[in-house]
Amino acid sequence: MPRINYRDSDVSLMARMMRAEAEGEGKLGMLMVGNVIVNRVIADCLDFKQVRTVPQVIFQVQGGNYSFEAVQKGNVFYQRARTSEKRLAKQNLEYWRQHPSKYALWYFNPYAPCPPTWYGQPHSGQYKQHCYYEPKAGTCDSVYIG
To answer: Cell wall hydrolase SleB domain spans which residues (predicted)?
Structure first.
């Protein structure tokens, strides 16, 4: 049973996002970005109460901007998803979770050491250049279940 319901078009869109956001961090880095996307679909809390699909997560607007830098800058569409990225996206959608993105709802590249919190959310760990943040205890229990 997959972690979330999805269509083939979701696999391609998610694969393009994973590539655009983390290609330089290899397969594991792309998987971690993909995990955040799936976690946001699962989360029924905070800024993610109204997002229930991969496209809704990827094209979500928060504070007047798209949530993901790749969408803001337009490079999410710079190339079609390759078969290898589609395989990674499908892994995320079906079963893949790993620390530090296991329960993370946010990530970013600070171009410096990771801050201990980001918008009040605790740092769960770092992979290469990306810092991952999961929700504060008690603020988003749904992400820990899904």
So the answer is: 24-133
Q: Are strands 130-133 and 61-62 parallel, antiparallel or unpaired?
A: unpaired
State pTM to two decimals.
0.95
DSSP 24-64: GGHHHHHHHHHHHHHHHHH--SGGGTT--SHHHHHT-EETT
Q: How far apart, in whole angstroms, are the C-alpha atoms of residue 110 and residue 38?
A: 22
What is the DSSP secondary-structure string of 89-110? HHHHHHT---TTTTT-SEEE--
**pLDDT band at residue 146, thresholds of 50, 70 and 90?**
low
Tens of pLDDT along 11-56?
999 999 999 999 999 999 999 999 999 999 999 999 999 999 999 9
Residue 72: its H or E element: helix 69-73
Contact between residue 45 and residue 139 where contact means Cβ atoms under 8 Å apart: yes
